[in-house]
Amino acid sequence: MTTTRLQQQIAFLVELDKLKTIYRRSYLATDPSRKENDAEHMWHISVMALVLQEYCPVEIDINRVIRLLLLHDVVELDAGDVSVYLRQNNLELVEKEKQAAQRIFGLLPAGQAQEMLAAWTEFEAGQTPEARFARAVDRIMPILLNYYTQGKTWQDVKASYDQVIAVNRKIGDISPQLWDFVKQIIDDSLAKGYLLRRYNC
Amino acid sequence: MTTTRLQQQIAFLVELDKLKTIYRRSYLATDPSRKENDAEHMWHISVMALVLQEYCPVEIDINRVIRLLLLHDVVELDAGDVSVYLRQNNLELVEKEKQAAQRIFGLLPAGQAQEMLAAWTEFEAGQTPEARFARAVDRIMPILLNYYTQGKTWQDVKASYDQVIAVNRKIGDISPQLWDFVKQIIDDSLAKGYLLRRYNC
């Protein structure tokens, strides 16, 4: 029996169901007893991009931003979630995620696979205004969730104030206004003791 | 202190976090020990619409379909999830969901609140091609999840074959091809015993 185009598409969609079981570092603001999973996260930041698009001073196609966000963590299905504080210069992880993208999007018919792979690659490269805004939104949500759980993830990964600033200040490259706001939240987290200035090793 | 526009938008986004704790009737295909929540569901069917848009013979704006899907269950935050088999002619529920939409979208600045309320209302009314396709996709996913969990939700709510056909055949009004496929899955579920022809009361 040959697999029809529609069967390939359904197989891809069923495979994506697994993302509901891939847990991230962030805890829910609503229920800090558990972490957020990739499916929840991709929905939440897609809506966030929709709501906050006006703070991107560069012209963007918001529909493309949403596509990037709906797909950006699909690779974690094979490669797992890795903290932003451990991602820097992790070439092994980059390779693993590329292979994951090939395998997962490769479940789709060829044209569609290429289209989705291109969206994922665009997000990863972070060069287009759409990818830069998508990546900013992807950074803002964990900060909010940290703030509303009194810094739970920051404490888990022992992220210091300086590290949080260093990793997230890129938000300001695409949206100075959002970075101003986020910086206030980070500063307030330091003041409230949710985040430490430094960790003594 | 006055609340700025951005603070209102952030308050809305933080409120939406609660949807990660509103559980639906469907179980995960990947892990049938737990039910799917609204946040996961809205992400999954948004991607589904993106992948299956070619099966809509009527011209649609897929970007609007995705907006409807990203927001369609937000009201369940106040009104809870109600099985499609119990929704028919439930005027009290309709009223409750309307009030929920007013409250939740009302957290946003006025213009944005109206825009999102309009998207939710369009989905509910189910009249535009975009809303009809969005509603079809919203019906297809639970059938898939039922199939991959051997009819777990159908058995929970004691839905018979005839009921499942009656509730879902509307898929065919907007996409005969998707309905053909879904009908095969439902028929196969009957053959495999995942779904019963009828329940003896």
Number of strands of chain A: 2
Radius of gyration of chain A, whole Å: 18 Å
Secondary structure category of chain A = mainly alpha
Taken in chain order, the helices and strands of chain A follow as HEEHHHHHHHHHHH
Question: Can you describe this structure in just a few lines?
Answer:
With 201 residues, the first copy, chain A, is mainly alpha-helical.
Characterization of this structure:
The structure is a homodimer of 201-residue chains. Chain A is mainly α. Helices cover 65% and strands 4% of the residues of chain A. The first copy, chain A, contains twelve helices and two strands, in the order αββααααααααααα. The first copy, chain A, has helices at residues 5-16, 38-52, 62-71, 76-79, 84-87, 91-105, 110-125, 129-148, 152-156, 161-168, 171-174, 176-192, and strands spanning 23-27, 35-37. Chain A has a two-stranded antiparallel ribbon. In chain A, strand 1 (23-27) and strand 2 (35-37) form a beta hairpin. In chain A, helix 2 runs antiparallel to helix 3 (62-71). The longest helix of chain A is centred in the C-terminal third of the chain and has 20 residues, at 129-148. The mean pLDDT of chain A is 95. The interface between A and B is large, with 41 and 41 residues.
